[in-house]
Every structure is written in structure tokens, then in C-alpha cells.
Amino acid sequence: MEFIKVKTYAELSKRAADIILGQIRRKPDSVLGLATGSTPIGTYEELIRAYDDGRADFSKVRTVNLDEYCGLSEKDEQSYRCFMNTYLFDHINIDKANTNVPNGMAADPEEECRRYDAVISSAGGIDLQLLGIGVNGHIGFNEPSDKFTEGTHIVTLDERTRNSNSRFFKSLDEVPRKAVTVGIGTIMSSGKILLLANGESKKAIVEKAIYGEITPRVPASILQKHGDLTVIFSEE
Ligand code: PGA
């Protein structure tokens, strides 16, 4: 594991973007596992800047997002599909047909999970997985539980997650109670993992996840077993 501690969020974003850009240069048709939330926004801004400056070509890149709320359509501003278009895809030369986010409106959510696993395996798996971490240690929407999950599945969101994500909604009531998320098994089979955590509020959980006991009560703790994990933490 490589643990990179930086002072500012700007530095975190730059370091993370450099790692992703290096991946795309080495393998232009890389499969990137992408994340939503506040933390990766600066990284996405850096990727857009690299594209604008002619330093990055996303034309062959394929992406697989971690998760999506159940019941939100891609037109909903709070949906993760809308987030990805707004913060990244609309500003770079990626083919949207090569971008994947689970469908939170699927009539048969279980079938959607199987479809999403098939998308990931037919892409040949994930080369580089970008992750944030929840204050409860979740990665994707894999909430603390009794066992580590494998493939894509439907989860009931933890109340701490709903509370913390309510900042993006008009009220707590509007935050969906269920979501589709890729499983821990899928995340762990990625070639490389890049975990980003920003600020004091994440310090304790990052320490617990990276140096504490490996337990499904802290889902991110499983990352200790990954052979190519980079953690970037900013104190800001
Ligand atoms: P955040 O969320 O980046 O908005 O803090 C991270 C997460 O919940 O995975």
C-alpha cells in the first residue's frame, strides 16, 4: 500500500488525476471504475483541464461507476448518472456509450444487478478503481454489515449515509433508501485501487480502515488485502 498524505484538497486532486492520466497513457482503452461524491470532483476538474490542454485522450476509455440510487432517473439532478455527466463526461472526449452507471429505475432491480456484473466482466474487469470513503467506512454503497459482498446488489442505505448525503437533497426525506452498488468482490478484483479521503471528518475512519482490523463492519478495511492500493489523504 502506498499512503500519500498531502496538505490541500487541490494537491490531492492533482495527485489523483496524475495517477489516472498515467493509467490512460499506458492503456488508452482502460476500464476506469469511477466514484461520485464531493471528494472526486477536484480530480475530475483536473482530468478536464488535462483534456483541454491536450494532455489526455479519453476516446477509447471505458468507465464503470460504482453505484446509483434506486428510484432516481438519469434526468434527476441527484442521480449519479447526472453527476457524472455534469462533472466529467460532458467535458471530455469520452464516448457516452462507453460509460456505465447502474440503472436505478430498472423494473427488475435484481436483473439490473446481473446485467451490470455482465457489463463489467465483458469489459474485462476494472483496470483502476477510484474510491471515496464514507464516514462509516463504506466504499461504493457497501455499507457496514456482517459479511463482505461479492457482485452487484441492492442495498438499504445506512442512516449515517442518508444523513451525510442529505446535504445534496432538499430534505432527508428525499434521500432514497435503496441503491444499486457493485460489490466488494468486484472492487477487490480491480487491477489498481485509488482511495481518496479529504479532511478531518475522514481521518479517523481512514486510519481504522487502513490500519485497523479487517472486518465487514468497516467495509473499506478489506482494501488492506489488495496488492496495489494507493491512498491519498488530505488534511484540509
Ligand atoms: P464524499 O462521499 O466524497 O461526498 O465524502 C464519499 C463516499 O460516501 O463514498
Question: How would you describe this protein?
Answer:
This protein is 32% helix and 18% strand. The protein is an alpha/beta fold and 236 residues long. It has a 7-stranded parallel sheet with strand order 1-10-9-6-2-3-5, with helices on both faces. The chain has a 3-stranded antiparallel sheet with strand order 4-8-7, covered by helices on one side. It starts with a strand and ends with a strand. The protein binds 2-phosphoglycolic acid. Residues 37-39, 132-134 line the site of 2-phosphoglycolic acid.
State the gist of this model:
With 236 residues, this protein is α/β, with parallel strands linked by helices.
Q: Mean of the pLDDT scores? A: 97
Q: Percent range for helical residues? A: 25-40%
Terminal-residue CA separation: 22 Å
Structural class: alpha/beta
Bound molecules: 2-phosphoglycolic acid
Largest sheet: 7 strands, parallel
Uncertain runs:
none
Order of helices and strands: EHEHEEHEHEEHEHEHE
| Shape type | globular
Total number of strands: 10
- What's the Cα radius of gyration? 16 Å
Strand percentage: 15-25%
Query: Given the structure, what is the number of helices?
Result: 7
The strands making up the biggest β-sheet line up spatially as 1-10-9-6-2-3-5
